[in-house]
TrEMBL record:
Molecular functions per Gene Ontology: G protein-coupled receptor activity
PANTHER family named among the record's database cross-references: G-PROTEIN COUPLED RECEPTORS FAMILY 1 PROFILE DOMAIN-CONTAINING PROTEIN-RELATED, MAS-RELATED G-PROTEIN COUPLED RECEPTOR
Superkingdom, natural source: Eukaryota
One cellular-component annotation, GO: plasma membrane
Database matches in InterPro entries: GPCR_Rhodpsn, GPCR_Rhodpsn_7TM, MRGPCRFAMILY
Entry protein name: Mas-related G-protein coupled receptor member H
Membrane topology field: Multi-pass membrane protein
Homology family: Belongs to the G-protein coupled receptor 1 family. Mas subfamily.
One Pfam family cited in the UniProt record for this chain: 7tm_1
Boundaries of every G-protein coupled receptors family 1 profile domain copy: 1-152
């Protein structure tokens, strides 16, 4: 879903007229449904192969899943966020970037920093190779799982003066854009 959200935000910045006037209303829902279907299919295949104790097929399915993540999902997410970041930096200096763009950028950035190491570690485990202890990798994954509410709160509570407001107001400010 981060990939779909990142690409959609990037398209809304690069082609704002097309995005507002010509983009099919159901495009986001269809893309997300297809991504969910693909993910469920891959996970079901990997799970069934691994539960049947077919070690060689299980290992190949896991390797295929990690390659799919690295080659299909990660590059568009990274590229679209770099484009979004450059566009926001090069945009009008008078206007502050919209909070939603900041939230998406921070969410993807922290996902790449804290979430991707677990996938890399799992991928390398398939070849009996490890760069870091499992405790470090799992700690990073835990941080990744719990950091998004803090991003929403901090971005939603910062205006010109960084004042703390209730969590509900912070979420409302972020998502009303």
């Amino acid at each position: 879903l981060l990939t779909a959200i990142s690409i959609e935000r990037c398209v809304s910045i690069i082609c704002p007229l097309w995005y507002r006037c010509r983009r099919p209303q159901c495009l986001s829902a269809v893309v997300c449904a297809l991504l969910w279907a693909l993910s469920i299919t891959v996970i079901a295949a990997v799970t069934s192969l691994c539960l049947l104790h077919e070690d060689e097929h299980c290992q190949m399915a896991l390797i295929s899943m990690y390659i799919l993540n690295f080659l299909f999902f990660a590059p568009p997410m990274v590229i679209s966020n770099v484009i979004l970041f450059i566009k926001v930096l090069c945009g009008s200096k008078r206007r502050q970037p919209k909070r939603l763009y900041i939230v998406i950028f921070l969410t993807v950035l922290f996902f790449l920093i804290f979430g991707v190491p677990l996938s890399v570690w799992n991928f390398l485990q398939q070849f009996s190779y490890s760069l870091a202890p499992s405790q470090v990798v799992f700690l990073l994954a835990c941080v990744n799982s719990s950091i998004n509410p803090f991003i929403y709160f901090l971005v939603g509570s910062c205006r010109r003066h960084c004042s703390l407001v209730s969590l509900q107001v912070a979420f409302q400010r972020v998502f009303e854009e």
